[in-house]
Amino acid sequence: MRYIVIQKVLGSLLMMFSFTMLPPALISFIYDDHTAYPFLSAFALTVVTGLVLWLPVKHVHRELRLRDGFVIVVMFWVVLGLFGALPFILAESLQISVTDSVFESVSGLTTTGATVITGIDGLPASILYYRQQLQWLGGMGIIVLAVAIMPMLGIGGMQLYRAETPGPMKDSKLTPRITETAKALWYIYLGLTVVCALSYKLAGMNWFDAVGHSFSTVAIGGFSTHDASIGYFHNAFIEVVAVIFMFISGVNFALHFVAWRSLSPRPYLLDPEFRTYFLLLAALALISSTYLYIQGTFASVWSALHHGIFQAVSIGTTTGFTTADYYSWPGFLPVLLLFASFIGGCAGSTGGGMKVIRVLLLYKQGIREILRLIHPSARIPVKVGSKPLSETVISSVWGFFSLYVASFVVILLLLMATGLDQITAFSAVAACINNLGPGLGDVGAHYGTINSMSKWVLCLAMLMGRLEIFTILVIMSPAFWRK
After folding, report:
1. Three-class SS string for 295-346?
2. Is 176 exposed, middle or buried (0-12, 13-18, 19+ CB in 10 A)?
3. Residue 366 CA from chain centroid, whole number
C-alpha cells in the first residue's frame, strides 16, 4: 500500500471539492438570502484540510496500484460525505443535527435522494441549490472527474476508474486512453444536463427550478426544490420531460457515446441490456397504470396513466421523484415499485440497483441450469446478444448477488434492532442500498423521524449501493491488508 500516494490524491481531491462550495455562496449573494457564510466557511475548512494533506507529499510521483485505488475511492466518498455536510451543519436556517447533516450529504452525493429535511419550500435558495449540486457531482462520480485531470498530478487513474465504474464488465473503455474516457463521459453528462435544463424551462419551470431539477434528473438523484417534488408543478409537460430524461440517464453512457459518435440509434436497438431495460419499464408502467385505474385511485384513465408511467420510470430507474404519495397507493403496487428498484438502471449509467445486465445474466444463468438438468452433457454458453460470456463474469455476477443479499439481510436486522418496524426497515434498506430514496412506512415521506443509529446504518447502505458492494467489502476483508 502506497500511503503517501493515497495522501496526495486525497489532498488534491479535497481541494478540488472545496471549490464546489463557491457556487452556492454566489447563489446566496444573487438571491440575498444571507446564507453565504456556511459555504465560505466550509470552503475554507475543506481547502485547508486538502492543503495540509497535499503539501508534504506534493513532489511524490508514483503509479497507483489496484489496492490504492480501492482505498482512495472508499476513503474519498466517506470524507466527501463528511465535508459535504459542513454547510448543513453551519447553516442557521436549517438547525439540524450532525447526524442529519451527514445523512443529507451522503444521500445527495450517492444520488439516493432520501431526505431528513422538511419545509423544503421555505429554505434559502443557496441551500436548495447546494442539495441539487451534490447529486449532480455524485451522479457520474467525482472520482471519474478526477481521473480526467489526473495527468496534472502525475498519477495514473486506471485503478480509480475500475474501482468506481458500475457494472460487471469494468475493463471496457470508450477511448484508448482512460483520461479521454473520463472526459467523454463528462461531456455526455454535461450535455444531457444542459438539454434537460432547457427542456424544463420550456415546459414551464423558472430557471432556478429548471437547473436544479436537471441536476437531480440526469444524476438520477431525486432531490427537489419543493416538498411535493415534481407534483408541485401540476404540469404534464414537465412530467414528460422528467420521464424522458430519467429514462435516458438510466441507459449505459457508453451506448450514448457510441450512438453519438456513429450518429445512429442502432447501438441502442442492438444492445440486449437496453432492450431488457426498456421492456421492464414498459411492463411496469402498464401494470401500474392499469392497477391504479381498476382500483379507482384516479378517476380518469389519463390520470392513472400519467401517474403510473411517471412513478414506474422514477422508481424503476431509482430516481425517486414523485407526483403523488405512491407509498399510500392500494394493494401490491407500492411493493412492486419498490422491488423494481432492485433492478435499477443499466450498467454504466447514473442509476442504482443491481443493474439490468446483472439481472439479465442471472436470468440466463437460471435458464441454463434448467437446460442442464434436461441435457446433462450439453455445453450451453451464457450469451449477451451473440457474444458468449466467460465463466469469470458469471461467477462475478453470482458473487455480487450473494454479497448483495447478505448485506441486505445484515443491514435489515440492524435497523430492526434499533427499533424500526419490519415494513419501514425493509423499505429503508431497499431504498438506500438501491440509491432510490423514498421508501414505505415511516420513511415514505422523509427520514427525519427515524432514530440516529438507523441513519448512520443507512449511510453505510447508501455508500455500499453507490460503490456496488464489492468496493466497500473488499477493504473490510483481512486478505486485502495482507502483504
Report:
1. CCCCCCHHHHHHHHHHHHHHHHCCCCCCCCCHHHCCCCHHHHHHHHHHHCCC
2. exposed
3. 28
**Cα-Cα end-to-end distance for the chain:** 8
From 12-16, 164-168, 203-207, 217-221, the region with the lowest mean pLDDT: 164-168
Buried b (16+ CB within 10 A) or exposed e, 62-97: eebeebbbbbbbbebbbbbbbbbbbbbbbbeebebe
- What are the backbone dihedrals phi and psi of residue 448, each rounded to the nearest 5 degrees, phi first? -65, -25
Q: Is the pLDDT of residue 62 over 80?
A: no
Which grid cell sits at 461? 447502505
Residues in contact with 483: Cβ distance below 8 Å, sequence separation at least 6, in sequence order: none
Considering only CA atoms, which of 98, 90, 6 is closest in space to residue 44?
A: 90
Query: Contact 250/139 with Cβ under 8 angstroms?
Result: no
Beta bridge mates, 388: 383
Name, in order, each residue with C-beta under 8 angstroms of 344's C-beta and a sequence gap of 6 or more. Answer: 250, 316, 317, 318, 351, 352, 353, 354, 355, 356, 434, 435
User: What tens digit of pLDDT does each residue of 276-331 get?
Assistant: 999 999 999 999 999 999 999 998 999 999 999 999 999 999 999 999 889 889 88
Q: Tell me which amino acid residue 250 is.
A: G
Q: Say if residues 61 and 6 touch (Cβ distance below 8 Å).
A: no
Q: Which cell is 20 given?
A: 464546489
pLDDT at 194: 97
* Cα 233 from Cα 334, distance rounded (Å): 23
What are the grid coordinates assigned to 256, written together? 450514448
pLDDT at 163 over 60: no
- What pLDDT, on a 0 to 100 scale, did the predictor assign at position 172? 53
Buried/exposed 298-319: b ≥16 CB within 10 Å, e otherwise? beeeebbbbbbbbbbbbbbbbb
The length of the chain is: 483
State how far the alpha carbon of 70 is from the alpha carbons of 51, 143, 172, 265, in Å. 22, 11, 18, 36
The answer to whether residue 133 scores a pLDDT higher than 70 is: yes
Which residues are CB-neighbours of 95 under 8 A, at least 6 positions away?
A: none
Measured at the CA of 463, the angle between CA 461 and CA 467, to 5 degrees, comes to 120
Residue 463 CB partners (closer than 8 Å, separation 6+):
74, 77, 78, 81, 106, 110, 472
How much is the pLDDT for 213? 97
Give the Cα separation of 226 and 209 in Å (integer). 9
